[in-house]
Specification:
Rossmann fold
Amino acid sequence: MGAYTYEMAHALVEAGHRVTVISRAIDGESVKRENGIEVHRILPRPSWNVPVFWRLNRIWPGFAWAAMGRLRSINYQSPIDLVEAAEVRADGFFVAFMPRRPKLVTRLHTAQIFVDRLNKINSHRNRWNYWFEKKSIMRANLLTAPSNAVIDLTRTWLRLRDQTPMVIPNPVDEKKFRPSESPRKSLIVYSGRLERRKGVHVIAEAIPAVLKAFPEAEFLFAGADGIDYDGTDWRDKLLSLVPTERREQLRFEQRTREELVRAYQEATVCILPSVWENFPYALLEAMSCGAPVIASETGGFPELIEDGVSGFLVPVNDASALAARIIELLSEPCLRQSLGQNARRRVENSFSARQVVPSMLAAYHRTIACT
């Protein structure tokens, strides 16, 4: 269950609504009730593991098909008013074919065609995935997006003539992601999958300068490893930049959401120098924990961070600027405190669940009421 789904589902339940989440099963399928939310974990269907047809697994939206089957079953027992799904992977593609079709809300995260371009992946092999995602967008009764930036980006690919996407920020649980009174360490935190579009190559270039200025500093990479376009693991690339005796200062861990709270509370600074980014939870949650943040001056970051007030924005692909800002924050405790307090205040005033959910509910109600 992604961060947006988790936050929105819990907020809607607290507001008195019935919420069902359908997500991908890792092992076996299951149906459980978790904190008032009915969670269905399902496997893609069908699985084309037979001669000749196995290649269909590459293009067939098996999870979307399985989700539609499960939705039909749920809808038969208790009518569904509205289904929300991201455009990524086209999980809502088959909702349009359901009897007594519920209203479909498609939320723009960042379509796969843009992710592949940013990671320098050959887009030709994924063209069917792009087609399914495109249809999921065009069939929606309502389009929402966390930022104006992702709407503008999507319009470079599609003509959204009959649809006006609504900008509704991602909500964050400011009660769970909160500052701590514990002193912060000389710790630079990056949260997310290691990949080029998130600027890991920029961090790689900045690490030597930071460690030269602050030999005791540590880097925590909280997320799954990734493979660069040359086939090399990012973890290996990053470790190769520092002497063997100092490689323990680069830590690679996969953390639960609860463990991420502690990481943000301990961080001197959280960084995300992406080549392009929508409206990432990695920085929203860090800001909510009162951590100073540094991001690229691209995508939705300027809509999230007030440069010099609630964080710093640096030019895209500029490792020197990133290193300089990290060193500045490591050097100046008062600046860290000021940025962190302002970041927390910005989340409370603009991106907390209590601020965001009423706008989303109003959009849902208007969509359901339309015939």
